[in-house]
Amino acid sequence: MAPPSIRPTAIAGLLEIRSAPHVDARGFFLNAWRAEEWQSCWGERPLHQLNLSRTERVGALRGLHTQLGPTPEAKLVRCLRGRVWDVAVDLRSGSPTWGQWQALELTPELANAWLIPEGCLHGFQVLEPGSELLYLHSAPYRPEDQLGVRWDDPQLAIAWPLPPVDLSPRDQQLPLLAQLPDLQP
Prior knowledge:
Helices cover 6% and strands 38% of the residues. A six-stranded antiparallel β-sheet has the order 1-2-10-7-12-5, with no helix packed on it. A five-stranded antiparallel β-sheet has the order 9-8-11-6-13, with no helix packed on it. It has a two-stranded antiparallel ribbon with strand order 3-4.
């Protein structure tokens, strides 16, 4: 099986990773994680947590979230079912792309994943009903280190593809970036 291809983005460390599944009459087999092949992009980060989310409704939006503090986390996000529009926002102090966002459509057919580095917000919008995402996390979940920013923050001006629906109460209450002075460049 061919190693995954890695495509950098305008945000340093934010990578699209595409795998080549082996397809036959039975379906397909995809090597979704092999440490030797992924070392070049994942580095020495540990794998602390594996999460699965399912979102039923088209237009549903989750995010924007990150974990900072003493245990910042990187995420590797892959769509197992359906189709999502996935967004990452650079909030790393001193980064030349601070406050900029990148988006990528994740689908099982593309067999792609999104490596979101530490210090970047993450969110997504569902484009097909019943979409499922698998997340690998480099740090254990710590509620006290969680941070979020509103999906419709005018400073970020993210161009979501659909009118958002089904926002969680938590996501509806997130602050604007301007309300978080510790996160300014």
